[in-house]
Structures are given as structure tokens and as C-alpha cells.
Amino acid sequence: MQRRMLISTLLALAAAAAQPAAWAQASADARQALAAGQFTIIAPFPPGGPIDMLARMLSNGLAAQYKQASIVDNRTGANGNIGIEAAKRAKADGHTLLVVPQGNLTINPTLMPKMLHYSVEGDFVPVASLARTANVIAVNPAVPAKNIAELIALAKSKPGTVSYASPGVGSSLHLAGELFGQQAGADFLHVAYKGTPQGLNDVLGGTVPMIIGNLPTLLPHIQSGKLRALAVTDAQRTPELPDVPTLAEAGVKGVALSSWYGVMAPKGTPAPVLAQLQRDITQIFNEPASKAQLQKQGLSVWIVEGPKFGELIRKETAAWAPIIKSRGIEAQ
């Protein structure tokens, strides 16, 4: 009996000792495979926005890591769906990656199921999230509401007339407004635009009184006094606007929302390659220069890897679905 126990113990120790070596070999093999070809980072939205910036940071980082060419492919159109479909068809070897905002992963599957030619879980594997930013509720300075309580009171006194701009029906910012109104017990009028710049122009001009937007977009106008920030729709205050309360602090619970961006790979990408890419992404985006670049744009590094990132996507999809259905929101 003692002999058998001794042999079992020795075998277990030998297996444990072999694991680091096996892991190191798998990592080396993955790096060798990734170094064997050009990278293509698909950004399904036009140049100039956060998706394009994050895609270029990732592209430049991978090019430096592997001494290989790396390009950003701005494959735009159909609310990002054209680029996502292109990524779906790409070879699953780690050389083609998709940088995408949360809405395409967690909202569109419920909002437009018949219009999508891809499945988030069926056609892609989550690599990692990259960055996040707070959303801000802001008004034109002419609006007679100095805080969230006064804005809610104004909306309740004139139901359906206090409007807010968003970058489109079913966008995360539109749904943030719907959830805000639902939790506040107020009826706000949604005005959809083709993008945030168009809606922002009308709010700055006074045509629309209110906007819910990403911090990077609204911050310069808040700092210049052209917009009045009333609250952030995040779980905590943002360092860029330390005096602006969260909605929870302002008395509206259940609207702790932020905007985030992540990386997906075609389904079938080998697990060792995914693990290596996750290590690369963590290194690239945690470099001081990367953090500084993101901070200038009102973004912060936010890395959630692999299965945990996949679980985040599933949870947010489940959270958005009842809001979309109960409010009767349909893609246009």
C-alpha cells in the first residue's frame, strides 16, 4: 500500500512539474504562429472615433511585438454589421481581430435579430475588453434644470416634451435614456440622429435640450460651458468631472451604465493563440503611453479576458433584452 501511495505521489509531482514546461511550450508555439503573418484589425466604424483609435493602438502594438505588418481595416456600414460579417469570414488563426463596441455585442442581437448575419456566440470567441468610459447626462445651459431632480420635475410637468438626443435607435445611449426615464418615473422624448455629432450640434444650438453621450465627446463642451453636466450614468464619479454626481447619488437607482469596447476573434481560433493575444493586449494597453493616450480621450484601460469577457457579454445582453422589448424599441 505504501509503495502504491509513493508511486502515485511521485507521478503527481512529475505531472505538476511538467505543467509549466508544457505551458511555456504552448506559449512559444502560439507566439511563433502569430509571428508568421500580417495582422488585420477590423474596425467596423469610420476613422476618428474611439473604435478606430483603439484598433490602431492594438495594431501598432502587435506590429511592434511580432515585427510584422499590421493594418486597420475600417470596414464600415450597416451600424457596424458589414465589418463584423467580414471578421466572421476571416481565417481563425489570430491574425484577424475585430474591435467592437458593446452595443453590437449586447444590444443588436435583441434589437435586430432578423437583420444580423452573424451570431455573437456562434461565430466569435471573446478575446478581451480594452477600455471603458462614463456616459454623461447633459443639457443646454438655457434649460432651467440645474440638477437631476429639477430635470425630472421638468419632464413630469411636461410629459413627452423634454427631448434628448442619441446617436440612433437602439444605441446604448438611447437605451440608457429609456432606462433613466423608466427608473425616474419620467417621460422623456427620444430624438434619434445618424450619429452623436449631429445630435450634439442640435443640443449646443438649443434645438434639443438634453443629450446622453460618451464622456470623450461631451467633455470639451462641458469644460467650455456650452453644456451643463447633471450626472454620470456610472457606478462611480469620473475623475474628469469630480463635482458631477452619479445618477444613484442624485436619487435615481439602477442606471449604473458605462460604454466599453472589446476585441473578438473568429470562432475556432486556437486556445493557445487566444491566451497569447490576451497577454499581448494586457501588455500593450497597460503601457504608460497607452494609458495616457486613452486618458486624454476620457477613456480608461479596462481589461477583462476570455471567459470572463464572454460572461460579461451574456449578462449585459440579458439585461438589455427586457428594456428593448418592454419599451417596444425596433431597429429602423
Summarize the structure.
By secondary structure, the protein is of the alpha/beta class. The chain has helices spanning 2-34, 50-66, 81-89, 102-106, 108-111, 120-123, 148-157, 172-184, 196-205, 215-224, 271-285, 288-296, 306-326, and strands at residues 39-43, 70-74, 96-101, 124-139, 163-166, 189-192, 210-214, 228-232, 258-266, 300-301. The mean pLDDT is 90.
The SSE string, one letter per element, is HEHEHEHHHEHEHEHEHEEHHEH
Shape: elongated
Structural class: alpha/beta
Unreliable residue stretches: none
Q: What does the largest sheet look like?
A: 10 strands, mixed
What value does the Rg take, in angstroms?
Answer: 23 Å
- β-sheet strand percentage: 15-25%
Q: How many beta-strand elements?
A: 10
Individual helix count? 13
- Helix content, binned percent: 40-55%
N- and C-termini, Cα separation: 73 Å
Average pLDDT works out at: 90
SSE layout and pairing:
Elements (H helix, E strand, L loop, with lengths): L1 H33 L4 E5 L6 H17 L3 E5 L6 H9 L6 E6 H5 L1 H4 L8 H4 E16 L8 H10 L5 E4 L5 H13 L4 E4 L3 H10 L4 E5 H10 L3 E5 L25 E9 L4 H15 L2 H9 L3 E2 L4 H21 L6
Parallel strand pairs: 1-2, 1-3, 5-6, 5-7
Antiparallel strand pairs: 3-9, 4-7, 4-8, 4-9, 4-10
Helix pairs in contact: 1-11, 2-11
Tags for this entry?
332 residues; 18% strand; ten-stranded mixed β-sheet; alpha/beta; elongated
Give an overview of the whole structure.
This protein is α/β, with parallel strands linked by helices. 48% of the residues lie in helices and 18% in strands. It has 13 helices and ten strands. It has helices at 2-34, 50-66, 81-89, 102-106, 108-111, 120-123, 148-157, 172-184, 196-205, 215-224, 271-285, 288-296, 306-326, and strands spanning 39-43, 70-74, 96-101, 124-139, 163-166, 189-192, 210-214, 228-232, 258-266, 300-301. Strands 1, 2, 3, 4, 5, 6, 7, 8, 9 and 10 form a ten-stranded mixed sheet that branches. Strand 5, helix 8 (172-184) and strand 6 (189-192) form a beta-alpha-beta unit. Helix 2 (50-66) packs across helix 11. It is elongated.
